[in-house]
């Protein structure tokens, strides 16, 4: 069964410890099948409001939204950008048209270094493929390479 990109997003949001496993399983699945149906439905992507605006709106509305809720939204923004960049890269790799929704996903407001390893941040700034870099997502050039 091929997972759709929206399912991958939900899994990544629900299980932070295994986010890259879900992403790379999707990469492998897509390369095997090149099934455009798994990427045709757009992500319900993050709205793009700043963290400060979200906190202010939440406190003014009195809806009980906490700073940790806002942190989840920032994480969702990063996941959306990462997934959009991944889909774009895979489409280019297999000569499929990049879905329109991919281009509509906004870049991260803050640089997102996927590895989280401080010592390779400078390298990722240089090596990140364009589809990632334009979304303020930074990875090594071989990020989508599999053995």
Q: What does it look like?
A:
The protein is an all-alpha fold and 147 residues long. It has one domain (5-138). It contains 7 helices and 2 strands; from the N terminus they run αααααβααβ. It has a two-stranded parallel sheet. Helix 1 (5-14) packs antiparallel against helix 2 and helix 1 (5-14) runs antiparallel to helix 4. It is globular.
Provide the fold topology.
Layout (H helix, E strand, L loop, with lengths): L4 H10 L4 H15 L17 H11 L5 H27 L6 H5 L7 E2 L7 H7 L2 H4 L3 E2 L9
Parallel strand pairs: 1-2
Helix pairs in contact: 1-2, 1-4
Q: Specify the biggest β-sheet.
A: 2 strands, parallel
Radius of gyration: 16 Å
Helix content range of the residues, please? 40-55%
Average residue-wise pLDDT: 84
How many discrete structural domains? 1
Number of helices: 7
| Strand order across the largest sheet | 1-2
Structural classification: mainly alpha
Beta-strand content: under 5%
List the helices and strands in order.
Answer: HHHHHEHHE
Tally of extended strands? Answer: 2
- Uncertain spans: 46-55, 67-72
Q: Roughly how many Å apart are the termini?
A: 22 Å
**What overall form do the CA principal axes indicate?**
globular
């Amino acid at each position: 069964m091929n997972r759709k990109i929206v399912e991958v997003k939900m899994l990544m949001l629900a299980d932070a410890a295994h986010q890259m496993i879900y992403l790379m399983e999707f990469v492998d699945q897509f390369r095997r099948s090149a099934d455009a149906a798994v990427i045709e439905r757009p992500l319900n992507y993050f709205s793009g409001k700043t963290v400060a605006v979200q906190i202010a709106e939440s406190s003014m509305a009195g809806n009980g939204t906490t700073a940790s809720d806002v942190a989840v939204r920032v994480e969702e923004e990063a996941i959306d950008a990462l997934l959009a960049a991944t889909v774009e890269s895979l489409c280019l790799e297999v000569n499929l048209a990049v879905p329109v929704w991919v281009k509509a996903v906004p870049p991260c407001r803050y640089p997102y270094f996927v590895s989280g390893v401080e010592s390779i941040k400078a390298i990722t700034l240089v090596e990140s493929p364009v589809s990632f870099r334009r979304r303020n997502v930074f990875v090594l050039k071989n990020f989508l390479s599999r053995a």
